Amino acid sequence: xxxxxxxxxxxxxxxxxxxxxxxxxxxxxxxxxxxxxxxxxxxxxxxxxxxxxxxxxxxxxxxxxxxxxxxxxxxxxxxxxxxxxxxxxxxxxxxxxxxxxxxxxxxxxxxxxxxxxxxxxxxxxxxxxxxxxxxxxxxxxxxxxxxxxxxxxxxxxxxxxxxxxxxxxxxxxxxxx
Length: 177
Fold this sequence. Notes:
A hairpin with a 6-residue loop joins strand 1 and strand 2. The protein has helices at residues 2-6, 10-22, 26-29, 34-38, 60-73, 93-106, 117-134, 138-149, 154-160, 163-173, and strands spanning 42-46, 53-57. With 177 residues, it is mainly alpha-helical. The chain has ten helices and two strands. The protein is globular. The relative contact order is 0.12.
């Protein structure tokens, strides 16, 4: 996100930020407007896939990044969608995923084999769980993530963020030589 910003890729920096700080599906992220992101500490939307109402709280540091991108792009109309192409059309999901593959290669992103827009939502989820686990609140965060992501069970959320794979890998490190 920061490297994209430093390279003048302000919209893409913001897109990555929205993915990893808001945890929205790409179908919702691509439709965000500047007014939603700049209108306060949170915004509410109706998710396209589930038709459920969801309120997103915007991290204070990310709020600054949003304002920086807004200023760098010289946005005049805050009712405008944030993720517009040069032709002034909203980026398609296919275009977004193609750009993400380009950024994966350009910035040597090794951590994701299949880096797509959905990877950002998973990153958001894993980061929340990881930070909560460091504070001894991993189980509580799974329940919260289950609700935030709209999953039917914590088991689904565990699979979604790849906890089983992480736990198996960690088990090997328990062995002493």
